[in-house]
Amino acid sequence: MVSLTTPVCDFGKAASDFALPGVDGQIWTLDKARGEKGLLVMFICNHCPYVKAIQDRLVRDCAELKTMGINSIAIMSNDPNEYEEDSFENMQAVAEKWQFPFPYVLDETQAVAKAYGAVCTPDFFGYNADLQLQYRGRLDASRKQAADANVRRDLFEAMKQVAQTGQGPLEQIPSMGCSIKWKG
């Protein structure tokens, strides 16, 4: 398991379109997923300890951001042939267990992860209402274990700022996680 950190935010970069099957039986596109004030695109998976450590916070923050006009979508791009825990059936089970307040979709070809430049799970891309990148950082100080409950909510605060101003913070701390499991 390789730990990686995300690159610096490429402010203003346009979001890439996609059409991916969700665990809810729908096909999700960029336009369908976006909120009035923006969109948080998250690359996650089921097996990664970094993602497991923040599941409850992810659900809390995305639900709260939705009330501010920021929608979220979670994309699973790992090769499930290598990690059975990341299968579509297990994606459905995880989404149900945690009551995800966002679509959880499968990027089977890994083309979407490549288009976004995703490198790890979790990897967060926060866009404003014009779908221009404003945040590429961490959720909070959590690593393989959840950080203290009272830590700064980096992603939440950044996306709240995006909802209010259309601009993300200039100072951003990279996300850290397991490398995306690319197909052969």
UniProtKB/TrEMBL annotation:
It comes from the Bacteria. One of its GO terms (molecular function) is oxidoreductase activity. PROSITE patterns: THIOREDOXIN_2. Residues 9-161 form the Thioredoxin domain. It holds the Pfam family AhpC-TSA. CDD domains: PRX_like1. SUPFAM superfamilies: Thioredoxin-like. InterPro entries: AhpC/TSA, PRX-like1, Thioredoxin-like_sf, Thioredoxin_domain. This is Alkyl hydroperoxide reductase. It comes from Thiomicrospira aerophila AL3.
